[in-house]
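Reopening this ticket.

The earlier resolution said the output was attached, but the attachment link was broken on my side. Pasting everything inline this time so it's all in one place.
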Amino acid sequence: MSPDSSPRSPNLLADPSWRPSPRAKTLWTVQIALSWLVVFAVLLGWVVFDPGRRSWQVAVAVGVVLAAALTTVVVPRWRYRVHRWEVTDEAVYSRSGWLTQESRVAPISRVQTVDTERGPLERMLDLSTVTVTTASSAGAVHISLLDRAVAEQTVTRLTEIAARHRGDAT
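Inline output:
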C-alpha cells in the first residue's frame, strides 16, 4: 500500500498511518550533532582560557559527552516512532514531536495552499516537507521529511482532492 492510497475511513482518533522517510533519522542525527558542536566549542574555550579548573572541566566534559551521545542516538529514533502523516479524501492528518507531541487534522475543505520545502540538508538527503496551509488560526499542517518522490505524489494528490472539494477554505 502506498502513501497516496487511503487505507481506512477517516477516524479523528486513529493515528495517521505513514511515517516519514527513514532518512529523516539521519537528518535529525546530523542536526542534533551540529547543535552539540556549539556546546563543545564553549567547553573548549573554557579549557583554553581557564586552565585552573581542570577537575570541573573534566566533569562537565564527561556530562556533555554523555548527554550528546544519548540525544544523538535516542532522539532521532524516538521522533521517527512518533512522526506520522496521512492524506485521505476528507482530511490531512499529522503527528509530530518527541518530548511534546502535536497531532493535527485539517479538513480538505479548509485547504488553501500546498507547498514543498527543501533546506540544504534535506536536498542532500533527497527529502521534502509538505506544508498544507489552511484557514485555521493554529497555522499550517506540516508533513515533514518525506522522500522527494512521495512528497511530489502527496502534493499532486492533495491538489486533486482539494479541487474536488469546492469548500470555502475559510
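Reporter confirms the inline version is readable. The radius of gyration is 20 Å. The chain has two domains: 26-78, 84-164.
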